[in-house]
Amino acid sequence: MADDLSTTIAEAARLLADARDVTLFGHINPDADTLGSALAVGLALHRRGVVVRVAFGEPEDVPESLKALDTAGLLVHRDDVPQEPELLVVMDTGSLQRLGPLADRVERAKGPVIVIDHHVSNTRYGTLHCIDEHAEATALIALRLLDEMGVEVDEPIARCIYAGLVTDTGGFRKAGPAAHETAARLLQTGVDAYSVTRPLMDAHPFAYLGMLSRVLAKAELDERAAGGLGLVHAVVGMDDARDVRSEEVESVIDVVRSASEAEVAAVLKELRPGFWSVSLRAVSQVDVREVAQVLGGGGHRLAAGFTFDGAAEQVVAALKGALERVES
Ligand code: AMP
Ligand code: MN
Ligand code: MN
């Protein structure tokens, strides 16, 4: 079977064993899973003397909280990515659209394009698909690949994998027994869980507190939305986000989703005037990936997102409409 994971992982390991030049991509607005996966595999290849670069399409700069994962300086600006990469590996990216301005490199690549991902909605772009929609994080599939390659997973590599795993599982709340066993293996290499997770999940500059209080003061609860299951939402306008990093804006959803009256939580993040990136979370019953897909986005059953052009009220109206269309 062409898509069997062990077969495609073995094939990916074989291709990487012969490679001299490898480009690895994460998705736009990168998180610890996409960059951790890319940097872990990148680091293993770099140590073998391969020319390695890791990049993502947007924004211009590396999010501050992820810089500590790049222990070998493999991250490059998107403008320094070759027009025709020799071998391309794309991590944690469900569709070409999620590569932003780097999407064209997939078509232009001279050699294979290996896609490593855990999104159910993966559109199967590229040439070789290592996709496991049951994996809690792409980092777990990246680790399988490293094992297949015979790489010694030491602390700098394990740190990258751990970062992806701990963030995508919501601090292991959504991790199964195998993922916990993997976490134990990673910690045994010397990864310091607290110092890895604090900058990724807990620490914010003081200005975060002010931003959060302004945004939360305007949050709204609609208990009748989503067929009576409830929607809570908050809006982070460009003014609210002016004094904070993207990390602070991205973490607002984790506070908003704590409202227990709502099955679904949403945070509207204004990227440009009237252009929004929306984060969706569900507790257990609503498949927010389906809701996001109705609106042109994607993601996972309990964590998804989409972008939208218009006023904030229009985004909320469209979201409520989509929530009625998707059965829970
Ligand atoms: P976020 O709320 O940005 O953390 O995103 C949650 C999940 O939704 C991620 O795993 C992404 O895969 C997915 N996602 C977010 N935004 C989009 C989008 N515009 N299109 C497709 N998938 C998205
Ligand atoms: Mn991701
Ligand atoms: Mn992921």
TrEMBL record:
Q: Which InterPro entries match?
A: DDH_dom (IPR001667), DHH_sf (IPR038763), DHHA1_dom (IPR003156), Oligoribo/pAp-PDE_c-di-AMP_PDE (IPR051319)
What name does the UniProt record give this protein?
Phosphoesterase RecJ-like protein
Annotated organism of origin: Lentzea atacamensis
Q: Where is the DHHA1 domain?
A: 241-323
A Pfam family this chain is assigned to: DHHA1
Domain DDH positions:
22-164
